[in-house]
Design a protein that fits this description.
The termini are far apart. Helix content is 74%, strand content 0%. With 173 residues, it is mostly helical. It is globular.
Length: 173
Amino acid sequence: MSALRHGDMDALETLFQRHHRRLYGFFVHAAASRAAAEEMTQEVFLRLLRYRRSYRPGSSFISWLYRVCRNVLADRLTELTRERLHGAEPDEQPGREPSPAKSFEDAEAAERLRLALQKLAPTDREVLVLARFQELKHNEIATIVGCSTGAVKVRVHRAMKRLAEVMKTEVLS
């Protein structure tokens, strides 16, 4: 990121190759739409280029990167809320593409998890996606969301309990 900050545009491609899959995965879990996740992932890299001078060498790049992701996600949610308030339909509906490598049961379980995640509050979903799917450390998440490491541990624990309750309710219904 330091190279990009100093004008080396080839560094953006390197950053893209290293991080785009993880960011896409973050957005798929957070937004539940593969098309929206793809758009938001691209937007992150556009913002990296646009705001490259705001990155401070020596600080955690991953924390900075996920703050950019949070901003992109927040902008997307604001946009969708505005569309709904004005009677417009969102431009895509949540969906999934079946993976030929997974068995039917695995795909079904993944879909149940995705639907259950969507029923959680956005703040719960966010910490779960960062902790469990992106495998970030609690101190990194704390920097991203702007709270203490202890608070992140509590939020992840509570979010996991809520997710378990949602999944249990779905199985029983």
